[in-house]
Amino acid sequence: MAIVKPFKGIRPPRHLVEQVASRPYDVLNSDEARAEAEGNPYSLYHIIKPEIDFEAGTDEHDEKVYARAAENYARFKREGYLIQDANERYYVYAQTMNGHTQYGLVLCASVDDYLNGNIKKHELTRRDKEEDRMKHVRVNNANIEPVFFAYPHNDELDAIVGETIRKQPEYDFIAPGDGFGHRFWIIDEPQFIARITAVFERMPALYIADGHHRSAAAALVGAEKRRQNPKHKGDEEYNYFMAVCFPDNQLTIIDYNRVVKDLNGLSDEAFLDKLSEHFEVECKGKNTYKPNKLHNFALYLSGNWYSLTAREGRYDDRDPIGVLDVTVSSKLILDEILGIKDLRSDKRIDFVGGIRGLDELKRRVDSGEMRMALALYPVSMKQLIDIADSGNIMPPKTTWFEPKLRSGLVIHELQ
Which residues are registered as beta bridge partners of 5? Predict the structure, then answer.
């Protein structure tokens, strides 16, 4: 079962929400955060990217940077940029992109569920990134940013959300830059709070969609605090961490594509010949080509687009990992032909989220920065859940969720 609870959120007042809210810490670099926060003392970047308060080039992992995060968080609360709700609540967070709206429940998930596997993962985490987020949680004693979960869709939760969104939203704004809509409601009716908790208790698992490092960091800090508290009872706030949970039938994973610096010494003709051993190769000319089904890929090379369709026997539809197009392309193209063995460390390859579009792949190749680009058909939510349920791990850079959660709408404190 999945244990969840309401919490006393710490939120910006309505008139400041657009100035406080920010993109997540890991989707932009320090210079970009500094530019976005320029002239805005309310920006959450002063807490989640606090290196922007120092001169350019300051190491974001310097201890003084973490200390500044805590100083800024305390100041935001002291000056009324962030105010704690009086009672424990659930919240509804809606995101609208390209005419599609998805409705998530903002709640606290259980550290125990993460540690015992009831919160299921599909990616590996890196210890250095875990430790960075753990330091951030420790110094602030709070989950400043939520993680992004999926749950098996449920009619009763849909009905509660539907009733809630009939009310006037607490927040309603269009984010600058991406143009996506963000709305936020409070659920404070006791009967709804009780029903949400009870419905989640019947669910066998929750699934991390995005935020594996934040989830790991929150759980590990919670476990630390247990060990450090001789009076630990099990109901303390540090036993929980903040998540936005979306029903799986509302979520779409978009493509996550690859660009490569060279052809491993091959000419265009030799490269295409080697591809034809495993794929049906069809030149599409100058017109942009987008993969249209599983096991179909788009290659951009020397000004032309190609359709690559994997031949029968080159993949295993019975294997939840082997059937993935990231596995097929990694094995048959990146490894076998181009000699790229480790997607996490090889400097010859880079990854481009599908939100940037296929024109970004073309641009990076046409500029001479990269030699070729490979576009993949996106993974489905069913594939993600099947892999997580089987205990397997997806290859690196498999899933890209959009829109990203806006940070700063609500914060969860651990005390």
Answer: 108
Residue 36 contacts residue 11 (beta carbons within 8 Å): no
Q: If residue 137 lies in a helix (H) or strand (E), which one and from where to where?
A: helix 127-140
CA 33 – CA 44 distance, rounded (Å):
10
Sign of CA dihedral 128, 134, 140, 145: positive
Neighbours of 161 (CB within 10 A): 21
Chain segment 239-262, per-residue pLDDT in tens? 999 999 999 999 989 999 999 999
Say whether pLDDT at 43 is over 90: yes
Token pair recorded at residue 9:
């959120």
Which residue type does 260 have?
Answer: V
Lookup: tokens for 39: 């002239």
Structure tokens at 138: 């420790």
Domain ranges of the chain: 4-252+402-413, 256-377
Instruction: Confirm whether pTM is higher than 0.85.
Output: yes
- Which residue has tokens 């875990």? 130
CA distance 225 to 112: 13
What is the Cα–Cα distance from 90 to 189, expressed in whole angstroms?
9
Strand partners, 243: 107, 147
Report the distance separating Cα 130 and Cα 224, nearest Å: 14
Q: Can you spell out the DSSP letters for 64-105?
A: HHHHHHHHHHHHHHHTTSSEE-SS-BEEEEEEEETTEEEEEE
Q: Would you tell me which CATH number, out of the four given (1.10.287, 1.10.3470, 3.30.1760, 1.10.760), belongs to the domain 256-377? A: 3.30.1760
